[in-house]
Amino acid sequence: MEWLQMRKQMIRVKQVFNLETIREGAIAKQGSLHVSHATAQKLIGGLDDLKSNHSHVMEVKEKAKTTLEAAHKNHTEMKRQIAELKTVNDKYQQQTEVLEQERASLKANYTVLMESCGCPSKWIYYNGSCYLFSYSENTAIKKNWEDSRQDCIRRGADLVVIDRPEEQTFVSHTIETMKTGKYIWENSFWIGLKDEEVEGTWMWINNVTEVEQR
């Protein structure tokens, strides 16, 4: 009997030991599962980071593509504008050459006209008339209005009567050109305008008052 009871106790101890072993194994396995879950969470977090980085890379790639397309479009437009400017410049060069040829031709024709108009030497032809801007290099020699007119009459002319704005421009421009030449002008030029009959009432030598319309 005692032996039988001892055997039963040994069997019970063995069963308890087996249960403890199973329990410890279960706890160890549960811990292993916890470690695997944490690792999985890290992997999932890393995967999310990779997805986020991939999205950012794709976004940057799209922006770079858009920028490149815009740059290519601008480059094409610049090439087109350069081609247009070159065409315009070529036309401008051609027109400039034509104008230079026309200017040379006009200058030659003007010279021929001057020679054929019959103006005496040192006289200037303008709009169908001959003009002489009489001067003396000796600034001490001065003529009054009457002496100047008599000098013109002896030459077969008269003091100028300016009856058009264009003629006034021509006379003024010619005088200014002569002043910038080799002579230093201190004298002015007399014109065909006087107020000897009524002081302050100016009249041209063709008996037309200065304020009258001609």
Automatic annotation (TrEMBL):
Topology in the lipid bilayer: Single-pass type II membrane protein
GO CC field: plasma membrane
Coiled-coil blocks: 61-109
A Pfam cross-reference name: Lectin_C
InterPro entries xref list: C-type_lectin-like, C-type_lectin-like/link_sf, C-type_lectin/matrix_domain, CTDL_fold
Residues covered by the C-type lectin domain: 126-214
Protein's name according to its UniProt entry: (spotted green pufferfish) hypothetical protein
